[in-house]
Amino acid sequence: MCEExxxxxxxxxxxxxxxxxxxxxRPAEARRAVERAVxxxxxxxxxTCDAQALSDALLVASxxxxxxxxxxxxxxxxxxxxxxxxxxxxxxxxxxELPVAKExxxxxxxxxxxxxxxxxxxxxxxxxxxTDLPSGGKRITAVVPLS
Length: 147
Description:
Radius of gyration: 16 Å
Distance between the termini: 22 Å
Pfam family, one: HATPase_c_2
Protein name: ATP-binding protein
Strand order of the largest sheet: 1-4-5-3-2
Strand content: 15-25%
CATH class: Alpha Beta
Helix content: 25-40%
CATH superfamily: Histidine kinase-like ATPase, C-terminal domain
Number of strands: 5
Keywords: ATP-binding, Kinase, Nucleotide-binding, Serine/threonine-protein kinase, Transferase
CATH topology: Heat Shock Protein 90
Largest sheet: 5 strands, mixed
Organism: Streptomyces doebereineriae
CATH architecture: 2-Layer Sandwich
GO molecular function: ATP binding
């Protein structure tokens, strides 16, 4: 499992959080936003997009938004930035609880569905940070390498 970091929100992050934004309501919309951002970056830098790296970023975006919807009270902010370190995804939700991986088997020995999203995010992302938001809730930021 990846290391989890909890940090205090800095004043500039708090200001950015208060700005009106539109963000995806569904994982498919988050994936489209990531695909557009990566494609635009590859087009403007005249580089080829690594299909596997893009797939990893799409999966991380999908898992973070799904977890925010299912366990975090809904998506309250979403941001994607493609830079030198890779694809930086930030998803905010209403819950202050840290994400956890569930055991694949319940106490009675039965296999249970789900619980794989957080380990997938931790495996594919280079850096994962969980930040408390001043207005409540949290922001999870994950950087997925593009090379």
